[in-house]
Write a structure and sequence with these properties.
This protein has 70 residues and is an alpha+beta fold. 47% of the residues lie in helices and 13% in strands. It is built from three helices and three strands. A three-stranded antiparallel sheet has the order 1-3-2, with helices on one face.
């Protein structure tokens, strides 16, 4: 069953308050980069916004990457 919230902002707030794997990934970033990451997630999750609210999957794919330096 999909997860429903009033808006993508509400869903991101839910993640910020309860998604410890995401918090662990972001913990290594500065506060400014953490905020940018949350904004990027909200933009990506906005595809699930509908006229009556946000309805998206209960499962999120999390990944982390590092930049290689030549």
């Amino acid at each position: 069953a999909p997860f429903a919230a009033p808006s993508v902002g509400h869903y991101v707030l839910f993640l910020q308050q309860s998604a410890s794997p995401i918090m662990e990934l972001l913990a290594r970033l500065s506060p400014a980069l953490q905020q940018a990451a949350w904004q990027e997630m909200a933009q990506a999750l906005d595809i699930y916004s509908t006229p009556v609210g946000w309805v998206g999957p209960k499962t999120l794919l999390l990944y982390a990457a590092t930049a290689s330096h030549p």
